């Protein structure tokens, strides 16, 4: 049986930079509403499915996202932050403010393929970390697959410390 290699990123939220990364004025960032549930699900699953490194765990990751959207989101246990281009959700992240979570960003930062490399992931990561800090957390964590572009280029930003995990994340 092949064991997946995972990585966990940890951020010291007290050291989060004060300078907000730029974002193009065409895009809006806001907390998603319950009416956005279908758009969130479509954007997150499409973003994950376009990343080959998720292929082994894609169904489990999409199932996690859908459970968060269908159960935890309406119960107020998770907040979804969405980047919109007009009415279309083009990027999203889920945040949990409970400090005892293995991952405070349980689906990571998801950006549709055609909108990548525009600073949206950087902005969304910063905004999600800022929201967690504003909710009183001193530290945030995220677990993702080793080798993803986000593992190499996005999550190290803002002081993200990387720890390699072997096997399924807890």
Mean pLDDT: 91
Q: What sort of overall outline do the alpha carbons produce when their principal axes are compared? A: globular
CATH superfamily: Gcn5-related N-acetyltransferase (GNAT)
Domain count? 1
Ranges where pLDDT stays below 50 over 5 or more residues in a row are: none
The CATH topology is what?
Aminopeptidase
CATH class: Alpha Beta
Descriptive notes:
The chain has one domain: Gcn5-related N-acetyltransferase (GNAT) (Aminopeptidase), CATH 3.40.630. It has four helices and seven strands, in the order ββααβββαβαβ. It has a four-stranded antiparallel beta sheet with strand order 2-3-4-5. A three-stranded antiparallel beta sheet has the order 6-1-7. It is globular, with a radius of gyration of 15 Å. With 170 residues, it is an alpha+beta fold. The protein starts with a strand and ends with a strand. α1 packs antiparallel against α2.
Can you tag this structure with a few keywords?
alpha+beta; 4 helices; about 170 residues; 7 strands; Aminopeptidase; 4-stranded antiparallel sheet
């Amino acid at each position: 049986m092949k064991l997946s290699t995972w990585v966990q990123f940890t951020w010291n939220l007290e050291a989060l930079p004060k300078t907000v990364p730029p974002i193009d004025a065409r895009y809006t960032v806001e907390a998603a509403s319950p009416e956005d549930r279908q758009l969130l699900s479509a954007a997150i699953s499409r973003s994950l499915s376009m990343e080959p490194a998720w292929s082994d765990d894609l169904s489990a990751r999409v199932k996690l996202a859908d459970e968060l959207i269908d159960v935890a989101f309406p119960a107020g246990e998770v907040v979804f932050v969405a980047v919109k281009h007009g009415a279309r959700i083009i990027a999203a992240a889920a945040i949990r403010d409970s400090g005892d979570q293995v991952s405070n960003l349980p689906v990571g930062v998801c950006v549709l393929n055609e909108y990548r490399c525009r600073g949206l992931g950087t902005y969304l990561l910063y905004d999600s970390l800022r929201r967690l800090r504003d909710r009183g957390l001193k530290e945030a964590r995220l677990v993702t697959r080793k080798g993803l572009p986000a593992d190499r280029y996005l999550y190290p930003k803002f002081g993200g410390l990387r720890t390699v995990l072997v096997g399924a994340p807890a």
